[in-house]
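Q&A log
Question type: sequence-to-structure
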Amino acid sequence: MPYIFFSGEHELKDIILNWKSLGLAWLLIICFFKLLATELCISTGWIGGHLFPIMFSGITMGFAISIIFGVDPVFSACVVATTFLSAIMENYIVAIFLLVLFFPINLAIFIIISAILGVELIKKYNSTQNNLLN
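Response status: OK
Response body:
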C-alpha cells in the first residue's frame, strides 16, 4: 500500500487522478492507516511534519465522502482536508493560507469556514475531555 508510506506529498497526485478507481473501502482504509502511521511515527520521534500526511488523509476522506453523499469531490476534499488540518494544528490562519494554494479560489470561503469550524470543534472536544477527567 504505497499511499500509506512517506508524507503523501508525492502520492497526492496519484490519489487525485485515480480516486474513483480505488473505491470507497480503499479510500477509507488509506485514510485511516495514513493517520495511524503518522501518529505512530510522530509519537516515536520521527523527524518530519504532519502537514502533508494530514492533508493527504483529509483529501482521501473527502473523496470517500463524495462517493457516499454524491457531492462534488473537489468541494468535499477541500472541506475535509481544511477541517482536518486546522483541527490538528489548532490554528485556522495557517490552514487557510496553506490550503488556499491547493484548491480553486472559488472555494476560499469554504476553506475559511471549514478552518474556523475545525479549530472550534477541537477546542470543544478538548474542553469536554478535560471536564470528564476532572
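Response note: The mean pLDDT is 88.
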